[in-house]
């Protein structure tokens, strides 16, 4: 799977070059192509923004530099273009799974007060937000999307790891334990040491419901 990222700050994407995503890139399971929008500025100072028509605070990214950066992407016609924006629909696990079936994504990161509407109308297929709050730019949301979507791409992680985690079945995940068996006078639940698989499975289901009821009760309401 290929992620093409249109950004003014490609240096911000260092975190997705580590850990699981690093291995996935080294094994050619996913590819992350960073395109610096500023490289397409025709201004001698590489200026990419300008004042908004009609007045108002802040600056807007010009449509021509964004469009030229977009045009530089190979196979762009087969890609889904996503604009990371607080005005978009909030990213969910279901949307993550849906996007993981794409072979080619283009992620457009806004900055300053945003991007000229005309280029958004021309190239963007969907706007996605990672929450109802505003950030300084779309780079962090783009990294969140890349990380969450990549986990569902075959070969990135073991498929079993995504089957019982939080939100996979509409509930939060059950508590997990490892060695030592006793820590700060707290013992691992006996059922997990029993070796009785059906009892363990039932306990995990009960704990998952309990966890969801305590932390995110609205998720239970959706299933009723």
What characteristics describe this protein?
single chain; 224 residues; alpha/beta; Alpha/beta knot; Trp Operon Repressor, Chain A; five-stranded parallel beta sheet; 8 helices
Give a written overview of the molecule.
- The protein has 224 residues and is an alpha/beta fold.
- The protein has two domains: 2-159, Alpha/beta knot, CATH 3.40.1280; 166-223, Trp Operon Repressor, Chain A, CATH 1.10.1270.20.
- The strands form three sheets. Strands 2-1-6-5-7 form a five-stranded parallel beta sheet. A two-stranded antiparallel ribbon has the order 3-4. It has a two-stranded antiparallel sheet with strand order 8-9.
- 33% of the residues lie in helices and 18% in strands.
- The two termini are 36 Å apart.
* CATH architecture heading of the largest domain: 3-Layer(aba) Sandwich
CATH superfamily of the largest domain: SPOUT methyltransferase, trefoil knot domain
What's the level 1 CATH class of the largest domain?
Answer: Alpha Beta
Helix content: 25-40%
Number of E strands: 9
Secondary-structure element string? EHEEEHEHEHEHEEHHH
| Global shape | elongated
Radius of gyration: 22 Å
* First-to-last CA distance: 36 Å
Task: Determine the CATH topology of the largest domain.
Answer: Alpha/beta knot
Count the DSSP helices: 8
Strand content: 15-25%
Largest sheet: spatial strand order: 2-1-6-5-7
Query: Which residue ranges are poorly predicted, with pLDDT under 50 across at least 5 consecutive positions?
Result: none
Class by SSE composition = alpha/beta
The major sheet is characterized as: 5 strands, parallel
Q: How many distinct domains?
A: 2
Mean pLDDT: 94
């Amino acid at each position: 799977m290929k992620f093409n990222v249109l950004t003014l700050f490609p240096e911000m994407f260092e975190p997705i070059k580590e850990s699981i995503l690093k291995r996935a890139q080294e094994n050619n399971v996913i590819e992350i192509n960073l395109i610096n929008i500023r490289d397409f500025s025709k201004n001698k100072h590489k200026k990419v923004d300008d004042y908004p028509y009609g007045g108002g605070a802040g600056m807007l990214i010009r449509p021509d530099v964004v469009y030229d950066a977009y045009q530089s992407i190979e196979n762009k016609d087969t890609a889904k273009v996503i604009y990371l924006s607080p005005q978009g629909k909030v990213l969910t696990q279901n949307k993550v799974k849906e996007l993981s079936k794409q072979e080619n994504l283009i992620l457009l990161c806004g900055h300053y007060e945003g991007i000229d509407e005309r280029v958004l109308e021309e190239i963007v297929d969907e706007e996605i937000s990672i929450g109802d709050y505003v950030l300084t730019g779309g780079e962090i949301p783009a990294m969140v999307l890349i990380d969450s979507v990549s986990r569902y791409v075959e070969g990135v992680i073991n498929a079993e790891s995504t089957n019982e985690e939080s939100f996979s079945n509409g509930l939060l995940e059950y508590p997990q334990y490892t060695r030592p068996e006793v820590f700060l006078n707290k013992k691992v639940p006996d059922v997990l040491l029993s070796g009785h698989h059906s009892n363990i499975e039932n306990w995990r289901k009960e704990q998952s419901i309990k966890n969801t009821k305590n932390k995110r009760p609205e998720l239970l309401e959706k299933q009723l």
